[in-house]
Specification:
Blueprint lengths: L17 H18 L5 E5 L2 E3 L4 E9 L10 E8 L2 E9 L11 E8 L4 E9 L11 E9 L6
Antiparallel strand pairs: 1-8, 2-7, 3-6, 3-8, 4-5, 4-7
Length: 150
């Protein structure tokens, strides 16, 4: 944030007394709110996390193990929002190899504060190796609703 857009400090000439400490506290609170204005929240987690703010979330996943799939032997990795599968927020490994420690974009959905986001893995056939949700981690870029561009 450019320095000229900051509000004037209340504590600039504060003394070391109760009134001065109150002014410093007010400045810190005001500046912390401004520092987060129009920003995104980045969340990295294991196979689940709790959403801290209502907004729009983009999801990526990565696996700690590589796997080889085919048209008949594959994984479907899906984001669950509070236990419900989200349409369009999934990764299907049909005829694709999952590279270990590589991020794959899964999609974007609106979320609410308190939603639990988890990874679900469905196995079709017997891909090598067979992965579970414990093999995946999530990354989320959350744009809080009050900061979304209108």
């Amino acid at each position: 944030m450019p320095p000229n857009s900051l509000p004037p400090l209340q504590s600039q000439s504060a003394k070391f007394d109760d009134e001065g400490f109150s002014a410093v506290k007010a400045d810190l609170q005001q500046l912390s709110v401004l520092a987060n204005r129009e920003s995104t929240i980045l969340i990295a987690a294991g196979d689940r996390f709790l959403v801290p703010e209502t907004g729009t979330a983009q999801f990526w996943t990565s696996s700690n193990t590589a796997t080889v799939s085919s048209a008949a032997l594959y994984h479907t990795i899906t984001c669950l929002r509070s236990g419900q599968a989200e349409t369009g927020i999934s990764l299907v490994t049909t005829a694709n190899e999952l590279v270990a420690y590589t991020e794959y974009f899964m999609g974007e959905i609106p979320v609410s504060q308190g939603n639990t986001i988890a990874v679900s893995v469905t196995v079709t056939g017997a891909p090598v190796p067979t992965l579970s949700s414990a093999n995946f981690s999530l990354r989320c870029k959350l744009t809080p609703a009050q900061f979304a561009k209108r």
